[in-house]
TrEMBL record:
Catalyzes the key rate-limiting step in the CDP-choline pathway for phosphatidylcholine biosynthesis. This is choline-phosphate cytidylyltransferase. Pfam families: CTP_transf_like. The gene is PCYT1B. Belongs to the cytidylyltransferase family. Residues 304-324, 336-347 have a biased composition (Low complexity). Its EC number is 2.7.7.15. Residues 294-354 are annotated as: Disordered. Residues 224-251 form a coiled coil. It comes from Cebus imitator. Pathway: Lipid metabolism; Phospholipid metabolism; phosphatidylcholine biosynthesis; phosphatidylcholine from phosphocholine: step 1/2.
Length: 354
């Protein structure tokens, strides 16, 4: 029972240390090995890879070492460090960064200086500790000083400093753990892109305010780059005008389409109203027929009575003869003499009536 409690307390203590380390990694950059006391205090016994993968020993994390130049720190570097950090259940990742002197001597010139490369590594989330001025070839003294259990690197033989593989003795000692390279990304690839598109980046930096002297550009090339920048600006303006013109035409087409639809709707409505009013069975025809019938009734005369009423006789006057109001049909006179004779006869008749 007591042994079980002690084991539980040790596990809790280990979990607390791991939690504190995790929080520190997320809230602050990784420390430098020569500025802190980040050394394993527990007895450092040699481990096998099988033991480390089982999570042993319980009293300390497995110390994994990865080294490199890390120039122009990119995702391929970060993925390699992630693999090194996650090789074992409980691991502490130390990253060694070679100095400018060693790098320029054995590999070549770098874009970033050593201070910039150190800082880039300190801000990677997988790194627990950064070792500055790391050796090009790992020595037993260096491994013992930093209590390194395993070394992580890709399995491709790394020939340098007169050796076919600088990690050969680490592999023979059973301390090497391979990681996988990330295809399609490397520092050399990035530099190749910059060299290939040198003119583009030179023009870009000139446009952003860098001088030709800072870019190591000749006077003629500077004028050429600046002229090309002006040409590109004009092309961009023309492109913007074309795009705006296309947008304007599209808007006009949309509006014209809407107007045509509205016109068609209004025309259908107008034609329907016209047919309803003036069609064969329209209201206008009925109204016209009614008015026509009324006008015909108003223009046609009423029939006159056959006989007029008789006058009442006066006692003082003799009764007058009755006669018809209907006009008599007379034939026109055939000659002037006959006309004068008819006129005289009409006058005599009037005298007799008096």
């Amino acid at each position: 029972m007591v042994g079980h409690q002690e084991c539980t307390m040790e596990e809790d203590s280990r979990d607390n240390r791991a939690l504190q380390l995790w929080r520190k990694t997320l809230t602050a950059p990784a420390p430098f090995a020569d500025e802190t006391n980040c050394q394993c205090q527990a007895p450092h016994e040699k481990l096998t890879i099988a033991q480390a993968r089982l999570g042993t020993p319980v009293d300390r994390p497995v110390r994994v070492y990865a080294d490199g130049i890390f120039d122009l720190f990119h995702s391929g570097h970060a993925r390699a460090l992630m693999q090194a950090k996650t090789l074992f259940p409980n691991s502490y990742l130390l990253v060694g960064v070679c100095s400018d002197d060693l790098t320029h001597k054995f590999k070549g010139f770098t874009v970033m200086n050593e201070a910039e490369r150190y800082e880039a590594l300190r801000h990677c989330r997988y790194v627990d500790e950064v070792i500055r001025n790391a050796p090009w070839t790992l020595t037993p003294e260096f491994l013992e000083k930093h209590k390194i259990d395993f070394v992580a690197h890709d399995d491709i033989p790394y020939s340098s400093a007169g050796s076919d593989d600088v990690y050969k003795h680490i592999k023979e000692a059973g301390m090497f753990v391979p990681t996988q390279r990330t295809e399609g990304i490397s520092t050399s690839d990035i530099i190749t892109r910059i060299v290939r598109d040198y003119d583009v980046y030179a023009r870009r930096n000139l446009q952003r305010g860098y001088t030709a002297k800072e870019l190591n550009v000749s006077f003629i090339n500077e004028k050429r780059y600046r002229f090309q920048n002006q040409v590109d600006k004009m092309k961009e303006k023309v492109k913007n005008v074309e795009e705006r013109s296309k947008e304007f035409v599209n808007r006009v087409e949309e509006k014209s389409h809407d107007l045509i639809q509205k016109w068609e709707e209004k025309s259908r409505e107008f034609i329907g109203n016209f047919l309803e009013l003036f069609g064969p069975d329209g209201a206008w025809k009925q109204m016209f027929q009614e008015r026509s019938s009324r006008m015909l009734q108003a223009l046609s005369p009423k029939q006159s009575p056959v006989s007029s009423p008789t006058r009442s006789r006066s006692p003082s006057r003799s009764p007058s003869p009755t006669f018809s109001w209907l006009p008599l049909k007379t034939s026109p006179p055939s000659s002037p003499k006959a006309a004068s004779a008819s006129i005289s006869s009409m006058s005599e008749g009037d005298e007799d009536e008096k």
